[in-house]
């Protein structure tokens, strides 16, 4: 990873940090140092029908340490979810995001809570990035009341209205036209905000995606379609499903950018660029080249269609958390011990949240019937067999 | 045409009202049988279908390695990638493509990975497949098309892995909807569906893929479509159902027997065109009818059966038609046990109907 450093300022800040951190060595080392650091992304961006954003990214110690903490938290959370699923505390479906954390964290760093995000079912980390709490995550996974969707949605249906996170969708590709609709509303209301509609390489072959692209381009909507290309649609490798796996070019008349999705700074740079572009010129596609360590879901071992060597290879060379760790250490922004302490803290947070979620009750059985329609404006069913139905007219 | 030749030699697949076929013509009983589960039975049927017709194809998402439920294991190895192949993730494309393939006289066996995902293909099925023969004045048809989809609750499927969408398709003249209840039924019915000269949607109860084990004959056999089967004789009340729900209903029948209620249980097998005569004959015998299905009660196929029975048997009925079905909510996540039409709900309804 090529690094270019502004030598004098960074070593000064490094020394300051060292003395600070030794004074508060038992507290988490989130530095408040915002001295700019310049880093180059691992690979340059490739573009289709648009200019390429600069490979040089501005960041600072505070941001990098936050990135590390957030990604470590997400990684720990997903691994904990894996164990909970195997212990049968989480049932149904569980699609884990570990390996792809850089996309969620980098995207969030480039935008505000006024911008909307909509994604498919691999949504646990995106929810956290949007401000969700660990308790809400684990409670929802276990189907308890404290979950973000009141226990009625489960793993695939996380939502957070106050930070414009529109979820959480089970049907592949269905969320993309929805995302373009959100963008339309933002444009109409002159919000100066954009919508990020995320989908996978499998969904990239759905017809509705192209319908959505056409509409967005026709009406210049501030929609950013993000293809999280982890190279496998469930068990099918991208080259076996798509004639053209260059997903960033599939928009044809819609410009696109290919980004190293395992490099959180590259993701942040690309999303900043994309937001600016979308507000001025309409839709753009971002292809995030990323990788998931787990299988498609908890029912998929993930090793029947790819070799273990491939998985460990990616983990060794491109892991997003390790990358940031190396960056932090090489810039002397924190010591290894401090980073390990952060990870321990994060682990404790996750364990606490799980313990709390386990105590939480399952939603009351009357919740089976709530929210089918708007309250008081649909039908209500009565009786033990719920066959007596009364319509409530406005 | 290839389809008619093979069909002509075997059982005549019933057109409207034709009950020429009897169970005697299907040689289910002859030959050896092995105890296998539902997905193996379906797998066997597919092997037979591809073996007996060189113009049969199996395609869908992930079918090549055997499919997510292993129904297509071994097919790609045996018949080659030109006949058994994966499609990209595009249901509308899969069915549309299947219609085209069938229109050229081939047998297209398309798999939709879960019935919950069939909706993007709904337009193709309803507007293209069902009406092709009709609107072309019999010049063209896509009768060789069979769409297979696992449906129904599985205990933890949630909103998008548990749906029973059969009612939507029962409203479309031009296609057939078939649902087997067990491995032996599945193999015979699937072969009939594949060889039927009309497009068929074949829903497989996913809960039974591993759970249901039965003696299934190893040879090629077909079971008649549009013929319901009385699987349990009774005299007090007629129960009508299909698919996985039948085993729940059977348990309720056994319990009711202890209270002296003799239940007749009918497996509809083909939902459209459905065997009204068998059901009517049974209701004329018992005077009471109860229908049960997992899909929500309002607008479910039970409504059609209920209305038809009332039309023909109004004066014979001793009690209103009972429907014990899923609730009118989206298929829930943690609330699945409350939503489902369980044995106790059916038992309650049996007693209420008999004591009306």
UniProtKB/TrEMBL annotation, chain A:
Phosphoprotein in keyword set: no
EC supergroup of this enzyme: oxidoreductase
Name recorded for this polypeptide: Pyruvate dehydrogenase E1 component subunit alpha
GO BP terms, alphabetized: pyruvate decarboxylation to acetyl-CoA
InterPro entries associated with the record: DH_E1, PDH_E1_Alpha_Subunit, Pyrv_DH_E1_asu_subgrp-y, THDP-binding
Keywords noted in UniProt: Oxidoreductase, Pyruvate, Thiamine pyrophosphate
EC number: 1.2.4.1
Biological role: The pyruvate dehydrogenase complex catalyzes the overall conversion of pyruvate to acetyl-CoA and CO(2). It contains multiple copies of three enzymatic components: pyruvate dehydrogenase (E1), dihydrolipoamide acetyltransferase (E2) and lipoamide dehydrogenase (E3).
């Amino acid at each position: 990873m090529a690094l270019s450093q502004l030598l004098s300022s960074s070593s000064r800040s490094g020394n300051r940090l060292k003395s600070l951190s030794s004074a508060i060595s038992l507290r988490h080392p989130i530095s408040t140092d915002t001295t700019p650091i310049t880093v180059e992304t691992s690979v340059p961006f490739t573009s289709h029908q648009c200019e390429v954003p600069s490979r040089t990214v501005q960041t600072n110690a505070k941001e990098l340490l936050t990135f590390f903490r957030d990604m470590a938290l997400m990684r720990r959370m997903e691994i904990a979810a894996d164990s909970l699923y195997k212990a049968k505390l989480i049932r149904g479906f569980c699609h884990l995001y570990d390996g792809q954390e850089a996309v969620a964290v980098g995207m969030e760093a480039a935008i505000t809570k006024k911008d909307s995000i909509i994604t498919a079912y691999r949504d646990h980390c995106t929810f956290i990035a949007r401000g969700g709490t660990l308790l809400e995550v684990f409670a929802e996974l276990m189907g308890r009341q404290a979950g973000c969707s009141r226990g009625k949605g489960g793993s695939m249906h996380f939502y957070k209205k106050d930070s414009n996170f529109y979820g959480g969708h089970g049907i592949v590709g269905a969320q993309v036209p929805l995302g373009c609709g959100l963008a339309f509303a933002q444009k109409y209301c002159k919000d100066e905000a954009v919508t990020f509609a995320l989908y996978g390489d499998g969904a990239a072959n759905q017809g509705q995606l192209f319908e959505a692209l056409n509409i967005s381009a026709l009406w210049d909507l501030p929609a950013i379609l993000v293809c999280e290309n982890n190279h496998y649609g469930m068990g099918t490798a991208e080259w076996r499903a798509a004639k053209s796996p260059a997903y960033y070019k599939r928009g044809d008349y819609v410009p696109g950018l290919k980004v190293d999705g395992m490099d959180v700074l590259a993701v942040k740079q690309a999303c900043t660029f994309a937001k600016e572009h979308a507000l001025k010129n309409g839709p753009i596609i971002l292809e995030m080249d990323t990788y998931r360590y787990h299988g498609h879901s908890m029912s998929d071992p993930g090793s029947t269609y790819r070799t273990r060597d491939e998985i460990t290879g990616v983990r060794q060379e491109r892991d997003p958390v390790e990358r940031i760790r190396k960056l932090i250490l090489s810039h002397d922004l924190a010591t290894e011990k401090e980073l390990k302490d952060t990870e321990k803290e994060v682990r404790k947070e996750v364990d606490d949240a799980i313990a709390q979620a386990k105590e939480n009750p399952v939603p009351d059985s009357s919740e089976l019937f709530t929210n089918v329609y708007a309250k008081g404006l649909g039908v209500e069913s009565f009786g033990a067999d719920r066959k007596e139905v009364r319509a409530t007219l406005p | 045409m290839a389809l008619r030749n093979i069909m002509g030699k075997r059982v005549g697949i019933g057109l409207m009202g034709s009950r020429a076929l009897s169970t005697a013509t299907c040689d289910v009983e002859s030959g050896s049988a092995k105890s296998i589960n539902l997905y193996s039975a379906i797998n066997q049927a597919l092997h037979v279908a591809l073996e007996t017709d060189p113009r049969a194809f199996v395609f869908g998402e992930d079918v090549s390695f055997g499919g997510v439920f292993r129904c297509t294991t071994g097919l790609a190895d045996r018949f080659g990638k030109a006949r058994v192949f994966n499609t990209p993730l595009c249901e509308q494309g899969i069915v549309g493509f299947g219609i085209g393939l069938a229109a050229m006289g081939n047998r297209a066996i398309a798999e939709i990975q879960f019935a919950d995902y069939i909706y993007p293909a709904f337009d193709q099925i309803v507007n293209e497949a069902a009406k092709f023969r009709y609107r072309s004045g019999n010049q063209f048809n896509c009768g060789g098309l069979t769409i297979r989809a696992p449906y129904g609750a599985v205990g933890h499927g949630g909103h998008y892995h548990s749906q029973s969408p059969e009612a939507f398709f029962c409203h479309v003249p031009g296609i057939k909807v078939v649902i087997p209840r067990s491995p032996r039924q599945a193999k015979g019915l699937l072969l009939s569906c594949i060889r039927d000269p009309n497009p068929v949607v074949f829903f497989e109860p996913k809960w039974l893929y591993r759970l249901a084990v039965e003696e299934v004959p190893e040879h090629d056999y077909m079971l008649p479509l549009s013929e319901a089967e009385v699987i349990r004789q009774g005299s007090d009340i007629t129960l009508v159902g299909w698919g996985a729900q039948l085993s729940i209903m059977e348990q309720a029948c056994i319990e009711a027997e202890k209270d002296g209620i003799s239940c007749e249980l009918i497996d509809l097998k083909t939902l459209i065109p459905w065997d009204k005569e068998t059901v009517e004959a049974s209701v004329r015998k018992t005077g009471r009818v109860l229908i049960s299905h997992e899909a929500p009660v309002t607008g479910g196929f039970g409504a059609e059966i209920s209305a038809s029975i009332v039309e023909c048997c109004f004066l014979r009925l001793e009690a209103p038609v009972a429907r014990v079905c899923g609730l009118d909510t989206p298929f829930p996540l943690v609330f699945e046990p409350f939503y489902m039409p369980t044995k106790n709900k059916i038992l309650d309804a049996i007693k209420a109907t008999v004591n009306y």
